[in-house]
Every structure is written in C-alpha cells, then in structure tokens.
C-alpha cells in the first residue's frame, strides 16, 4: 500500500469539508477522485500535501504516518502536487519554473529530471527560455505537471489538469498522464471530466459533500447508471 487514508476529517473554520474519508492507493495505480464542485476533492489533496490541517484521521504513506506534516517535508518524502489553476510563476522562464520544482530536494542541478520532463513535454524544451506567462493555457498546464515531476515523486497528485483546455488539448494531457503512469509514477487524479478520468484510471472514488459516496473499479463505475446520470451526461 503506497497511501492509506482512514477517517479523515477537515474543516475550513466551521465548515466540515471532509467527513471520515477512507481512501487507498496501491503503487503503480491511477486513482481518480470525481464529484461536483465543493465535494471535497481538492480538500483531500490539500490534506495529503499538508496545505490543510486534518482535524482527525490518519494519512499513511509508505507505512509512515504523515498526517499534518509540513508541506515541504511531504514533497521531500516523494509526493508532489500539480495544483488546480496551474499556478506557474508567470514572470519566470519555463526553465526557472522547472528548477523551482527541485527545491524541496535541495535545489540540485542534476540534468536527469530536465531530460525526463523535456522528453515527456518536447514543447517545453522548445520554449525553455520563454516567459511562462506568455505560454498558452495548454502549455502552462504542461509546465505545471512537469514542475511537479522535477522532484521525481513516487506519488503525483493532479488537480483538475484538463480545466479550461480545448478538447484536443484535453486528449493530449490524458495521454501524457498515461505515459507518466507507464514510467512508474503512481497518480491520484482529481478531475471534473469524469468520463476521461474513469477511462484513464484503474479505480475511482466518488465524493459528495465531503464524503465517499461510492468507490470501485473505474470500468464498473463507467457503467453505473447513477454515475452516468450524475457525472457523465449522455454517455451511453
């Protein structure tokens, strides 16, 4: 078991955002979190990465309790986040953004992480001296994922990677997610495009108002009539 969450509760002031969340991820899996806005998807990632405090419950990574560890220590243990909204540093170059992704591991200047991300994202290599704020939305999303990979994580957390992208770019991003998985990185994917998330993942959890409403193999959930009606539109 790479990651195990049990009985996780989290609050924003008096708002009970996560209610007894249980979740597991095996090494090598792609696991999706799907649900509507406000369901608790991003809050779950924020607790894992130490950005939001857990009120109760446990987060165990590689048999180590990391509940409420500070965020920089979480990254150092091998967990990295590509945040919702990309959040690249717009005034820095592509290369400078990537270099920041290595800071949690001491800011090493090794070439291997660069070679890896440039192989995955050749467009970023072409634009490595371009200011990040001038990139297209799709290129900025690539940069956000690439920056998260620079710390060479074992577990990659992706928060809404297809948000705001044109359909052809959505397909490209999901192809890249599959390729990253093939390279041995375990992935926890938060995604409102439930159809694509279920197609790419091994298993999925459906969150509703801070609770796990349903979980199972992604293929089974794709064929679940309630899931189709709630999240997949007219998918037949």
Number of helices: 10
* Widest β-sheet, arrangement of strands: 6-7-8-3-9-10
User: How large is the radius of gyration?
Assistant: 17 Å
Major sheet: 6 strands, mixed
Identify low-pLDDT runs: none
What is the CATH class name of the largest domain? Alpha Beta
Output the helix-strand order: EEEHEEHEHHHHEHEHEEHH
- Taken from the alpha-carbon principal axes, the silhouette is globular
- The CATH architecture assignment of the largest domain turns out to be 3-Layer(aba) Sandwich
CATH superfamily of the largest domain: P-loop containing nucleotide triphosphate hydrolases
Helix share of residues? 25-40%
Number of spatially distinct domains: 2
* Average pLDDT taken over every residue: 92
Task: Tell me the span between the first and last alpha carbons.
Answer: 34 Å
CATH topology of the largest domain, which one? Answer: Rossmann fold
Give the amount of beta strand, in percent. 25-35%
Strands, helices and their partners?
Elements: E1 3-12, E2 15-25, E3 30-34, H1 41-48, E4 54-61, E5 64-65, H2 71-77, E6 79-82, H3 94-100, H4 112-120, H5 122-126, H6 137-149, E7 155-159, H7 167-182, E8 186-190, H8 194-200, E9 203-208, E10 211-217, H9 218-222, H10 225-231
Parallel strand pairs: 3-8, 3-9, 6-7, 7-8
Antiparallel strand pairs: 1-2, 1-4, 4-5, 9-10
């Amino acid at each position: 078991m790479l990651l195990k969450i049990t009985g996780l509760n989290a609050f924003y002031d008096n708002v009970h955002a996560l209610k007894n969340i249980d979740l597991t991820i095996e090494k090598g899996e792609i696991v999706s979190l799907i649900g509507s806005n406000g369901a608790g998807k991003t809050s779950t990632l924020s607790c894992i990465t130490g950005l939001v405090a857990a009120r109760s419950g446990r987060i165990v990574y590689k048999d180590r309790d990391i509940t409420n560890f500070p965020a920089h220590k979480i990254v150092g243990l091998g967990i990295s986040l590509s945040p919702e909204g990309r959040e690249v540093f717009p005034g820095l170059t592509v290369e400078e953004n990537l270099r920041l992704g290595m800071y949690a591991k001491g800011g090493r200047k090794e070439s291997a992480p660069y070679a890896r991300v440039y192989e995955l994202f050749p467009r970023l290599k072409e634009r490595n001296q371009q200011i990040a704020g001038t990139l297209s939305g799709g290129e900025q999303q690539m940069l956000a994922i690439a920056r998260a990979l620079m710390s060479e994580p074992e577990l990659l957390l992706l928060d809404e990677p297809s948000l705001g992208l044109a359909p052809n770019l959505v397909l490209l991003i999901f192809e890249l997610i599959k390729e990253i998985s093939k390279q041995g990185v375990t992935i926890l994917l938060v995604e409102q495009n439930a159809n694509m998330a279920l197609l790419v993942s091994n298993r999925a959890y459906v969150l509703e108002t801070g609770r796990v409403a349903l979980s199972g193999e992604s293929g089974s959930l794709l064929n679940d009539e309630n899931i189709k009606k709630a999240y997949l539109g007219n998918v037949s």
